[in-house]
Specification:
Blueprint: H1 2-28, H2 51-62, E1 65-70, E2 73-78, H3 81-88, H4 102-107, H5 121-134, H6 137-142, H7 144-163, E3 170-174, H8 176-192, H9 203-223, H10 227-230, H11 232-237, H12 243-272, H13 283-289, H14 294-325, H15 327-340, H16 356-368, E4 378-379, E5 384-386, E6 389-391, E7 396-399, H17 401-404, H18 446-463, E8 464-467, E9 491-496, H19 498-501
This protein binds protoporphyrin IX containing FE (HEM).
């Protein structure tokens, strides 16, 4: 009995000493300001959807660098260009880690993927493979036909729907699912060399593609903020809302599909010739020939699909919505296309860099509606300073790109859609406009995204007249989700332009 008391007393003394030590350390530190918080859960109840808006109003009160506690996890939120610049220049290496999340642990191969792996040799290796091979300009050049074909198929399907509309040649079309399917097909073909949707796909492949899309949607849904990530003690007691069980189930289903893709390609390689050189630079093919393990390849496919599909589709959907609300800007973009590309042929990827007004439109859409409004969370590997405040090791860093890009101190008339604001500007917009992030963990898919988004928008604007489905402006409210989708999927009235029918639309 005496032993028990000795044990209890020494454990309590230890805890009290630890508490005092922590208190003394934190009182010496100049931590970023924070709102009052509750014990154990910290500020979790304060963080309401849409998170970027909540964090913006908190930064109005607590400043451009402030801190929160998500349960036991310290978080620092950065909402000014100068603080973001500090993060991605002098602190770039220290902040190149990612916080370890349950979703990545269970669904993304124990956080071994390029987007979730901690900063270190394994991440560097995957990053080099991605930027110097898979998404490098020479590889993007070899997959040019994939993108042009998929955009042509999108235009053709819209033309068919519009031209079969009685009398008017004008049809009401739902854009989100079309854009998601196109974007998914482009990336799947670049990964595996195979078309999973449409006439060229067999029924089995189409089924796999549909299952895969479902799995990806579930991964997105389950990757949002999970209380279990911030209250690990609670997680051990209850599986909050059965999330962990669902994650395990989704991980199993996605693994079966991904393994099937790898096995199919492996046997295709064997059948054709064991020793042949990799003639097609498809991603799986390339990774197999470089000797990567199946788990690393599966994680990479999943990451590229998750990171690359919805981001591009959502950007096109937001841009089209903005253009429908600003028909004069749509007309100006059409005039630029007529002038540079003409009306006798469909716009080509090589034309995109000759269309500065279109590029300004895309920049402006990404400024107002960045698909990753808080970028992707970073984590400090060591103590560091941001904006004159101490940021301890192990702090999660959220850069509120959405708030920076709408800050009236940074942009004139920040909530208006004005592509002209970039005209004649010599300065670059780094740290004011950062939809792809900055520094070593910034988006490696920016080149592909610019090509897909630019080419698709150019083709849609060149070939069709677009109108809203009613007098009302298109609703621009944000929904919830990882890639900040529009709350309502975009619907629009679509009609082939007379001048484009004979030479382009009817020949696709
Ligand atoms: C409009 C389209 C896109 C936007 C706005 C976007 C934005 C971003 C952002 C903000 C990050 C995080 C940066 C940070 O942590 O600071 C990121 C990371 C990433 N993106 Fe993109 N992205 C887009 C398209 C793509 C595409 C097409 C791909 C690939 C096919 C891709 C692959 C990735 C990967 C692999 C990462 C993780 C990088 C790492 O952790 O090292 N993204 N993206």
């Amino acid at each position: 009995m005496e032993d028990v008391w000795v044990y209890i007393l020494s454990a309590s003394s230890f805890l009290i000493l630890l508490f005092l030590f922590k208190l003394q350390r934190s009182s010496k530190r100049n931590l970023p300001p924070a709102p009052p918080s509750l014990p154990i859960i910290g500020h979790l109840l304060l963080v309401k959807e849409p998170v970027q808006r909540t964090l913006q109003s908190l930064s109005d009160r607590y400043g451009p660098v402030f801190s929160l506690s998500f349960g036991s996890r310290p978080v620092v939120i950065v909402s000014s260009p100068s603080a973001a610049e500090e993060c991605f220049t002098k602190n770039d290496v220290v902040l190149a880690n990612r916080p370890c999340m349950l979703a990545g642990e269970i669904m993304l191969y124990s956080n071994t993927t390029i987007s979730t792996a901690p900063y270190g040799p394994h991440w560097r290796n995957l990053r080099r493979l991605t930027t110097l091979e898979i998404l490098a300009p020479h590889c993007l050049a070899s997959s040019l036909t994939v993108r042009q074909e998929e955009v042509r198929l999108l235009v053709r399907s819209l033309y068919e729907v519009a031209s079969s509309a009685r009398d008017s040649g004008c049809a009401r079309v739902e854009m989100r699912s079309r854009l998601q399917e196109m974007s998914f097909s482009i990336i799947m073909r670049m990964i595996s060399g195979k078309r999973y949707f449409g006439a060229a796909a067999d029924a089995g492949d189409a089924k796999v593609a549909r299952q895969f899309r479902e799995v990806i949607n579930e991964i997105f849904e389950l990757s949002g903020t999970d209380p279990g990530d911030f209250l690990p003690v609670l997680r051990k007691v209850v599986d909050l809302k059965g999330r962990e069980r669902r994650m395990v189930d989704v991980a199993k289903r996605s693994d079966v599909i991904l393994q099937g893709m790898i096995d199919e390609l492996r046997s295709r390689r064997k059948r054709s010739d064991g020793d042949r050189k990799v003639e097609s630079k498809m991603m799986i093919d390339y990774m197999l020939s470089e000797g990567y393990s199946d788990d690393i390849i599966k994680g990479h496919i999943l990451t590229i699909l998750c990171a690359g599909t919805d981001t591009s589709a959502v950007t096109i959907e937001w841009t089209m919505s903005l253009l429908l609300n600003h028909p004069n800007i749509m007309q100006k973009a059409q005039a630029e296309l007529d002038d540079i590309v003409g009306r006798d042929c469909l716009v080509d990827e090589a034309d995109i860099h000759k269309l500065p007004y279109l590029q300004n439109i895309i920049n402006e859409a990404l400024r107002l509606f960045p698909p990753a409004p808080l970028l992707v969370p970073h984590e400090s590997a060591k103590d560091c300073m941001i904006g004159g405040f101490d940021v301890p090791r192990g702090t999660m860093i959220l850069v509120n790109a959405w708030a920076i890009q709408r800050d009236p101190k940074v942009w004139d008339d920040p909530t208006s859609f004005k592509p002209e604001r970039y005209e004649g500007l010599k300065e670059d917009h780094a740290y004011r406009l950062l939809p792809f992030g900055m520094g070593r963990r910034s988006c490696p898919g920016v080149g592909l995204a610019n090509r897909v988004v630019g080419l698709t928008l150019a083709a849609l604007i060149q070939c069709f007249e677009w109108e809203r489905v009613s007098e009302e402006p298109v609703d621009l409210s944000e929904g919830t989700g990882m890639t900040m989708p529009k709350r309502e999927p975009l619907e629009a009235m679509c009609k082939a332009r007379e001048c484009m029918i004979a030479n382009v639309c009817a020949r696709l």
